[in-house]
Amino acid sequence: MDNPSLRELQQPLLAGVGCGPPLQKPGEPQLGPPFRETAFAESLRGWQFLPPPVPSVSAGLGELGPPDLEDASSSDSDSDCDGGSLLSPLLPHDHLGLAVFSMLCCFWPVGIAAFCLAQKHPQRQEQQHFPSLDDKPQFPGASAEFIDKLEFIQPNVISGIPVYRVMDRQGQIINPSEDPHLPQEKVLKFYKSMTLLNTMDRILYESQRQGRISFYMTNYGEEGTHVGSAAALDNTDLVFGQYREAGVLMYRDYPLELFMAQCYGNVSDPGKGRQMPVHYGCKDRHFVTISSPLATQIPQAVGAAYAAKRANANRVVICYFGEGAASEGDAHAGFNFAATLECPIIFFCRNNGYAISTPTSEQYRGDGIAARGPGYGIMSIRVDGNDVFAVYNATKEARRRAVAENQPFLIEAMTYRIGHHSTSDDSSAYRSVDEVNYWDKQDHPISRLRHYLQSRGWWDDEQEKAWRKQSRKKVMEAFEQAERKPKPNPNLLFSDVYQEMPTQLRKQQEALARHLQTYGEHYPLDHFEKKSSRTPGAGLPHVSLTACRSSKCPGSDLTASSR
Amino acid sequence: MAAIAATAGRLLRLRAAGAEGQWCRLRGAGLQAASAAGDAAQRRHVAHFTFQPDPEPQEYGQTQKMNLFQAITSALDNSLAKDPTAVIFGEDVAFGGVFRCTVGLRDKYGKDRVFNTPLCEQGIVGFGIGIAVTGATAIAEIQFADYIFPAFDQVHVIREVASMAQEKLGVSCEVIDLRTILPWDVDTVCKSVIKTGRLLISHEAPLTGGFASEISSTVQEECFLNLEAPISRVCGYDTPFPHIFEPFYIPDKWKCYDALRKMINY
After folding, report:
1. Is the ipTM of this complex over 0.95?
2. How far apart are the C-alpha atoms of B164 and A414, rounded to whole Å?
3. Which strand (E) or helix (H) includes residue A453?
4. Which residues of chain B lie closer than 8 angstroms to A293, CB-CB?
5. Separation in Å, CA of B44 to nearest CA in chain A
């Protein structure tokens, strides 16, 4: 029935108002508050373009009466939306009511028209500028339904987020469709990286005990988290670590010589002897220098990811941290920034059970770190960190999507810190030796992978024996070499603080030089690199070290081809 | 580590036989890294010096010899015994702390009074403030974990320098351990400078903007006409604290002695 008045009735009410499902831009991922809020924002904007209401509705009903003075002056009814009723108080103010009334009065056209409109805008009140707010919350802060039952959400910590794994503890693939089917050469590289790291850890820990280096942190038990994730990244993906991620560098073929150089602070150290041991950094391998204060790397990693996005670099940033560091305020800031600014970043949490002496039961009361991700709107997963294939699969998929969709991913890798926190710690003061032994013997990433290799016939006891000997030999050679090298020239204490050394600092440098001329016998100058020329009294020449260039660095034997 | 026997503001006078010549005021404040016990020639080198325990004071009754960390533990023990509202919290305090300052306290006073917090310094400080707002006593431990070696007190360096000055230059020094920086004991320092005419200030923190500049500024305001030589500051350099270059960075006894010598010869 093509009733002109029906069309008149329809037109103004259809303009710009959407109460349907939120629109999704094609190709963008599902869900997430941003899109629904956008829909709200759009529909809210639509309100601005609302036509003047009512007169056209009542057109079919005959003359409008004057505003009802009683209604207009009444104050205790919900007359906020009324604003002066333009309809006779006798008529229903809603479409459905009007429809029924009209039908009863046999005003069929009006009745049908009003009924149609009632379907489109079930609760719209004539006199209002906004639709009824009854059926759906309009809060800008959240998108949700109303509930009329008082219920607190119970945090689920008993059966929390499940732990994804590919291999069982004996290295057997559980679900064949999850086997990444990596080639032998690659899996051997996993194994050799983890074991070489383990060997280097043993030797450097001992060297600290003997007073040869000042400090060390081992990676025992967490080698799988390093290697599995590193293998799933591109070589140019930027890595921000905390301090227990040396396996990532190992996988990227960072030479033993340079690991040692940093720990010894000798002339070959690209860091020029300025940082405590294990504070590695390598620009060429895209591994940002380790910084002591915890969790400071997290917001930094997010900023780097944002810049990578803008540069269309097809690059992800991975940010490692422990479950303890996740308690820092910087972690909250990083997560929130990454989500709101849509950054291609993987947050990789190594949940190893302890933050020095603090167990997880004293670190958090929720379902670990993975459960926090959804709170920020971040895609999250929990994996078995001692299963190198699980770590690999999760990181691989996270990387693909983070870059494709410009959104952060959170991976919580469950593992166990088998070693002490550092050489300054004795963990027998707060945990039992039995507990440590369990993890060392029953659930270790290296042995699980070895079982996998052996069951495939890619490794055997003989090769194991030979490799242990070879890797130990390589580590010892690098170690002895590092010991023999001198420390960098003390002038390097002053350089690289500023682009151009300010006068004040140059004066301090000169003062030290003069001091050493008189009192040099009291300083261990023999262990530090001499300068080729020294002019007393004049400005001292800078000694610049060649920064680590991968082409000049001795390669490692882990892979046949260099990177 | 030797404990400092002097109370705040007290002077420690160093006298050697036949003291003569000018008095020279030395002051030490702040902490710097200690050497480890390792003494093999090939081993790592840090500025090293000899610790000497303070002489046993006579005016306090029975005393017990302890190092700095033990003294802290003892003070915490006393506080918790005396004040039932007092609580100790921070990272890793429950098992005794990374510097062993809370050993035994959790067993003695219970887990509601000596407890670990999550890893969050801003949280620890805020939490502590909140406790104090209610009138209870908050004792927060802020941990630097492995980032500083066990600290030794700059005062020991200064005392050694004072000995050297006496020995080699015949100069007597007054050593002041400042103890606090805000407020700091202006009167003690100025009285001493008025007497000696020279002041050397030393701390490990960098020179520019370091606390020695505050002291120097105030002393030249108060004692300008008493000064025989410019005030000397022996501090760290304006760089981040370096690892392997520590022996060169530290304001050690040789740098302090050299500065003192130059002041005497000004």
Report:
1. no
2. 58
3. helix A445-455
4. 147
5. 6
Q: Enter the tokens of residue A126.
A: 């004539």
- The alpha carbon of residue A358 and the mean position of all alpha carbons in its chain are separated, in whole angstroms, by 23
Question: Other C-beta atoms within 10 Å of A112: how many?
Answer: 16
The answer, for A261 touching chain B at a CB cutoff of 8 Å, is no
CATH number at residue B115: 3.40.50.970
3-state secondary structure (DSSP) of residue A173: strand
Q: Looking at beta carbons, which residues of chain B come within 8 Å of A212? A: 42-44
Judgement on whether residues B201 and B255 belong to the same structural domain of the protein: yes
> Smallest Cα–Cα separation from B189: which of B7, B10, B3?
B10
Q: Do B94 and B42 contact (CB within 8 A), yes or no?
A: no
A121 is catalytic: no
- Cα-only R_g, chain A: 34
Give the total number of structural domains in chain B. 2
A37 touches chain B (CB under 8 A): no
Q: Nearest by CB to B238, which of A490, A504, A519? A: A504
Token couple for A297: 């790397």
Verify whether the Cβ–Cβ distance B118 to A364 is below 8 Å: yes
CA nearest A277 in B: which residue? B243
Nearest-angstrom CA–CA distance, A269 and A267: 6
- Closest-CA distance, A180 to chain B, in angstroms, reads 36
Of B95, B146, B207, the CB nearest to A429: B95
Looking at the fold, whether B159 and B120 belong to one and the same domain comes out as no
pLDDT in tens, B24-63: 444 443 322 333 333 333 444 444 555 667 788 889 899 9
| Domain assignment of residue B209, given as a range | 155-264
The CATH number given to whatever domain includes residue B203 is 3.40.50.920
How much is the pLDDT for A440? 98
A242 within 8 A of A297, measured Cβ to Cβ: yes
Based on the fold, state whether residues B232 and B166 are members of the same structural domain. Answer: yes
B39 CA to chain A: closest CA distance, Å? 9
Which residue ranges in chain A fall short of pLDDT 70?
1-134, 532-563
* Catalytic-residue membership of A143: no
Asked if A342 is an active-site residue, the reply is no
* DSSP notation for A70-118: HHHH--SSSGGGTSS--S-TTS-SSHHHHHHHHHHTT-HHHHHHHHHHH
Task: Return the structure tokens found at A84.
Answer: 């002066």
Q: Annotated catalytic, A397?
A: no
